[in-house]
Amino acid sequence: MFEIDLSTDNNLAPLIRRISNYKPPLEETGAYLENRAKTRFLTQKDPTGKAWAPLRPSTLRRKKTRAILRETGVMAASISWLVSGATVRVRPSVDYALLHQLGTKRMPARPFMGFESGDPAAIGKIFRGYIEG
């Protein structure tokens, strides 16, 4: 899950104080982060750019597709964002997403949620756009 809480984020605090209504930049940030997470299902890479662990042969035999984490597309489609007060949360709504994100004893982690190196700068740019008009 991504969570940006403006009341506790020291990096964004100077920008926040200059915005009277921070709901629009939070909504834009939520949409941006949702898109980034969903794109990882296409690239099959984690937020650091590392390729997800390949599927085991036994898994490939029973799947309809060779795509990792995309048998039905439900998990990727479940990722959405919600603004509440000074916080935007981006997360999948299906329970099993956490198992894939963190992995289990029998399944390697295949992270799809998380910040990429350029995300803080992109989010800062979103907020600066609302300050500079």
Features of the shown structure:
6 helices; 3-stranded antiparallel β-sheet; 41% helix; alpha+beta
Description:
The protein has 133 residues and is α+β, with helices and mostly antiparallel strands. The protein is built from six helices and three strands; from the N terminus they run βααααββαα. It has one domain (2-132). α2 packs antiparallel against α6. The longest helix is centred in the N-terminal third of the chain and has 21 residues, at 23-43. The two termini are 30 Å apart.
Number of domains: 1
Question: Major sheet: order of its strands?
Answer: 1-3-2
The gyration radius over C-alpha positions equals 17 Å
Tally of helical runs: 6
The oligomeric status of these chains comes to single chain
Structural class: alpha+beta
Terminal Cα span: 30 Å
Q: In brief, what are we looking at here?
A:
With 133 residues, the chain is α+β, with helices and mostly antiparallel strands. Helix content is 41%, strand content 11%.
Architecture blueprint of SSEs:
Elements: E1 2-5, H1 13-16, H2 23-43, H3 57-62, H4 74-77, E2 80-84, E3 87-91, H5 97-102, H6 119-132
